[in-house]
Amino acid sequence: MSPRTKPPAVVAELGRPETPEETAARKAQNSADHRNRQTVNNLVYSLIATVALVAVIVLIVPRGNPTASAPPVDYAAVAQQAQGSEPDRLLVPELPSGWKSNSAQLRTKTSDGVDAWYIGLLTPKGQYIGIVQGFDANDSWVADQVNRTRIAGTRDIDGVKWDVYDNRSAGSSAGNVAYALATTAGKSTVVVLGTASDDEFATVASSLTGQLHDLGSPTPGGK
Fold first, then answer.
1. Strands 160-166 and 179-185
2. How far apart are CA 195 and CA 95, in angstroms?
3. Fewest Cβ atoms nearer than 10 Å: which of 3, 95, 188, 196?
4. 204, 93 in Cβ contact below 8 A?
């Protein structure tokens, strides 16, 4: 007695057995779907590996405060190179140890048309004071430097009278111009501005006294 051949299974979707062509097509589609799933999985695994590698790099690379780690700027040397290019000598404060400079530049071809010598200082207490010496400046230039703050009075420091601009009550909105002093000597308008204490401002202003008198009789604020 010969063995009976098992009839082909009926496919529910078709309601009949598959033809050889349909079987081949189904298997080909299943293979394609499997390959696509493998491709997506591989992409996901690769992305996870990349993110993990970046995280490791971020963790192992040392980081620090670039301002604190940067070497101090020798503003006296920068001033020496630029001396003679402006109508007055560039001011060079002589400050006690513990003071550092993070910037010194002669700003020319400015949008307001006023050349200015700038020194950025970090005080021993970690506060900021900037010295800006504008040449042939006007009242509008001064207003820009002090962030449009109104004059709060005058202050005599080491024989030089300065206009005072006090914006400390504004809190963080005052930015780097929480307090400022301004005076004029020769063709220079000098603004000392920043976030430091009164004593630290007095230290900077006093360091400029002799040079201001050399430029001319210092006068608070304007000409």
1. antiparallel
2. 17
3. 3
4. yes
Spell 37-58 as b/e; 16+ CB within 10 A means b: eeeeeeeeeeeeeeeeeeeeee
Please tell me the pTM assigned to this model: 0.68
Pairing between β-strand 116-122 and β-strand 10-11 as defined by DSSP bridges: unpaired
- Which residues are within 8 A (CB) of 137 and not within 5 positions of it... i.e. 6 or more apart? 114, 116, 188, 189
Run means of pLDDT, 10 residues per run, the chain, 223 residues: 60 64 74 73 75 61 48 95 96 96 94 95 96 96 94 95 92 86 97 96 97 90 53
| Contact yes or no for 193/180 (Cβ under 8 A) | yes
Q: Is 135 exposed, middle or buried (0-12, 13-18, 19+ CB in 10 A)?
A: buried
212 and 218 Cβ atoms separated by less than 8 Å: yes
Q: Is 104 exposed, middle or buried (0-12, 13-18, 19+ CB in 10 A)?
A: buried
DSSP state of 148: T
Paired strand residues for 132? 118, 191
Amino acid symbol at 183: T
DSSP 17-78: EPPHHHHHHHHHHHHHHHHHHHHHHHHHHHHHHHHHHHHHHHHHS----HHHHSPPP-HHHH
